[in-house]
Specification:
4-stranded antiparallel beta sheet, 145 residues
Length: 145
């Protein structure tokens, strides 16, 4: 799978530290691909304050501070003919008490599905100042490797 993360304004300032497609996400994608059961959709995007490297066995977010939102979701076919799934949301000053963002995750929903994650990404710390925000866009594409 190809993975992309875009954080407007910070794209050149932050460096990705780790990315892991989570085991539950792999399982659910497999079920989706072979049309076994439903719902295996991912609606939520969240940020947290834990920057430890992502592993396949993680929960979608590990931080003691977390903020979840319903993601804007879409998919499209790119110029190479690959299908791209995309999630995005804007996080604002005050969404986390410390305003320190170090991780982002995609999960099934924001009420009872935040333990069923697709992906967890850690990155260099972003500290939001008063009145500021950051928009994250995550894209995942099946690719041959």
């Amino acid at each position: 799978m190809g993975i992309g993360l875009r954080a407007q304004k910070y794209i050149l300032e932050m460096g990705l530290k780790s990315v892991a497609i989570l085991n539950k996400g792999k399982e659910n994608i497999t079920k989706l691909l072979v049309n076994l059961g439903s719902p295996y959709s991912y609606y939520a995007i969240g940020v947290g304050n834990d920057g430890t490297d992502a592993t396949e066995n993680d929960n979608p977010l590990k931080g003691s501070e977390q903020s979840w939102k319903d993601a804007n979701r879409s998919y499209f076919k790119d110029g190479n003919g690959s299908y791209i799934a995309q999630w995005n949301a804007t996080f604002n000053y005050g969404d986390l008490p410390s305003n320190s963002l170090k991780e982002i995750g995609i999960a099934q929903n924001i009420t009872n599905g935040t333990v069923n994650g697709l992906i967890r990404i850690t990155f260099d710390e972003i500290i939001l100042g008063s009145g500021s925000s950051v928009n994250f866009q995550i894209q995942i594409s099946p690719t041959q490797g």
